[in-house]
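Technical note accompanying the year-one report. For the benefit of new consortium partners, we illustrate the data format agreed upon in the data management plan: each record pairs a sequence with a structure-token string. No post-processing was applied to the example shown here.
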Amino acid sequence: MRRNLEATIETFPITGMFTISRGSKTEAEVVTCTISLGEISGRGECVPYRRYGESIEAVVAEIRSISAAVTEGAGRAELLRLLKPGAARNAVDCALWDLEAKQGKVTVADALNLSPRPITTAFTLSLGDAASMAAEAAKNAKRPLLKVKLGTEDDESRMRAVRQAAPTTRIIVDANEGWTDDNIEHHLRLARQLQISLIEQPLPAGQDAKLAQIERLVPVCADESVHATDDLEALRDRYDAVNIKLDKTGGLTEALRMKAEAKRLDFDIMVGCMVGTSLAIAPAVLLAQDAEYADLDGPLLLARDRQPGLRYEGSTVFPPAPALWG
């Protein structure tokens, strides 16, 4: 029996507006890959990212370009050769994991020898002026972990305002490549003073050599600078942690390999996400089981999620039910 592969575009509204230093959006536009074999179907979702040269249309075309190979039975190992790391491969890889689980009547967690548990996710504060970010921080001050989007000419006022509004909450600062060689040491001193737990991607990817030359007063995490396993070795002298996202690695298969290598190299691990639905986050919840940080709040930012979706209680996210994925 031959498989059937489909790639479709779906849109989910965001609650309010999600803003980072590169721009704002009011909806999450995702690509869903469905691979069917008779009555059984597996699904995977990806979120194309313009920062990495991706578009919705190009990702759909990339997925459809391997339809014949998948129809003839190409599996996850072959997929690593058929597609480059990125959103398209992520959607197909996760659909194959889901299909395999349903065919074998065994969960992905079981296949990975995991006993998954609920985990704590960061909750992201969108970029705004200092007053509006402080107000959002105050509303969410009881959450155990906040992630604060920065990358402006006046990040200091925003950092101070958020810390004052949420004095006991652990905070991750995500500069989104917005700091410079001239101001990074000042911002790191400030972050230590404010008891910030982690700084994510302070300098532009490919322009981060300064991080190897200064004292990192707060641990620094690579995001845009790291995509897949082969990137890790070159970052050992400048980062303390790496953000593993399925849309960067090109799926759970490569993400598992990357996580193992990152651990071997003594990086702390964050498992992150784009703004997508529970279908995109479900495999990442399994990946994040023993990670130092999880940033898997995409569905919490949406006005409407998939049904069924992941179960969230505050900042606690529960492992996916097979009806959703895996």
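Partners are asked to follow this layout when depositing records. Residues 208 and 267 are 17 Å apart (CA to CA).
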